[in-house]
Amino acid sequence: MKVFVTGVSGQLGHDLMLELQKRNIDCIGSDRHGNPDAPFKTVPLDITDKENVDKILTEIHPDGIIHCAAWTNVDAAEDPENEPKVRAVNVDGTKNIAEVAKKLGAKMIYISTDYVFDGQGTRPWQPDDKNYAPLNVYGQSKLDGELAVAKTLDKYYIVRIAWVFGQNGKNFVETMLNVGKTHPEVRVVDDQIGTPTYCPDLAKLLVDMIESDKYGYYHATNEGGYISWADFTKEIFKQAQIDSRVIPVTTAEYGLSKAKRPFNSRLDKSKLTENGFSLLPTWQDALSRYLENRQNHA
Fold it and tell me: Which of 115, 138, 198, 218 is catalytic?
């Protein structure tokens, strides 16, 4: 099997390539500029360039494509001058890849987000819920990307994730570690509820998926229960032995962000086990491994 991964300079794409290599699966990664220094094979690819996508993917002719590349700066997406760029990447770029996947007969995994929902209530979102109402430009663009994949392909997986952290890039854990070391107390939102997703754990699941034919919509985050960002921060400080005090605040009290954030990011993952996939380990265990890996590479 040959697998093509987009967005390998990001957290998830990077860990996916490492997981594919670990399993001795033939794999090629791409990002916008290519990366000759990466510990895996990459090619430059601008997913918004339809002809280039067709040319590169047709030459490589993968059996499976895992599409991680995306515009993910949620607040910057709200700027009116950025909206066309966001859509060019998250909607048109996704459609370009899906169309070539269809031509080649390749299966495709599209990485999506809890932001496709309105984030209201307390009921965990089901993978097959269709009552979408994204709160922001980013969420709408990811939903439109989902619809482009579902309309174009039969052999697809749409995998919604949330609160992502991995070794390769900026994430919430790094931000809190840095703030906690320099501030005696930290204000953190406690009315947005969800579960973190650790990229190496998610990568294992995605490789299991691309090797299967259990197509459809899925939700995937780590286990360990639904928590707030404040709860997550408390556990980060506890495991990292940082003395900074966490002060829980509401989203309204916190202020700052341009884009509306969902209050309810609870994702129901039971469809994974129903289809024979393993659930991810707990987020507490994932955080411990993240911190240990960080220490080893310090």
Answer: 138
